[in-house]
Write a structure and sequence with these properties.
The chain has about 150 residues and is an alpha+beta fold. It folds into two domains: about 70 residues, Winged helix-like DNA-binding domain superfamily/Winged helix DNA-binding domain (Arc Repressor Mutant, subunit A); about 45 residues, Dna Ligase, domain 1, CATH 3.30.1490. Helix content is about 40%, strand content about 15%. The strands form two sheets. It has a three-stranded mixed β-sheet with strand order 4-3-5, with no helix packed on it. Strands 1-2 form a two-stranded antiparallel ribbon. A hairpin with a 7-residue loop joins strand 1 and strand 2. The N and C termini lie far apart (about 45 Å). The relative contact order is 0.12.
Length: about 150
Amino acid sequence: MFRLILCMAFSLSPSSKKTFAQSLREKGLRPTKQRACVYGVILDKRDHPTADDIYQRVKKHLPSTSFATVYNCLETLVGCGLVRQVNMDRSPTRYCPNLSPHAHFKCTQTGQIFDVQIDKDTLSRMQALVPDGFMAENIDLCFSGKGHTPHN
């Protein structure tokens, strides 16, 4: 049995640890402290951070970690299906740990990004938009706009 080394200031929940380790092992990869830390900071604050945001957070726990290491960890986490990349407009890629079917809404006033849940009926109607003979494997839907009141 392996022992997962985590960032000093926090740890993954038991179910997150198991998912993390299993997903990496299925790809023949080891759960390293850097990967665990990057995954942990994404789970800890679900605000759709950029790679730079994640790097700044990881540096608080693992000061000697380089940006390249964080970026490589992000690519690994995406490749293992632990997080999703979110690309909106021409802004930097963001990362989302919510793996359920959902869309994103970006407030143009604050820059905040919110998850928008999509129910099964809506997903089915969206699948009907795909050309005959094709099946959507991924739906990447983003909205942007502004609210009547600022959000915190």
